[in-house]
Amino acid sequence: MKEPLVSIALATYNGEKFLAQQMDSLLAQDYPNLEIVISDDCSSDGTWNILLSYAEQDSRIRLLPCETNLGYVRNFIRVFMACKGVLISPCDQDDIWYSNKTSR
To answer: N or C terminus of the chain with fewer C-beta within 10 Å?
Structure first.
């Protein structure tokens, strides 16, 4: 039986400093059925380009660009609404996850 889909919900804004490490930790999750949904809140640094690079390499990543800045709370609401998983795991943009976080 296939495990239920888990959505990792990530809201970003000018997070380029830690984003590569974070994305590597999310993609290294040992849980086999997940999606990573990312809403970027009009970042003005290199965040969007980093996200595009990761999304091109992994089909589990879904990007949601914003046309206007929503702010922290509305950006998270937006990403939660776009998740398709049975469970949603919120993720701050500077989190580095252990590989078993989702499976636990």
So the answer is: N
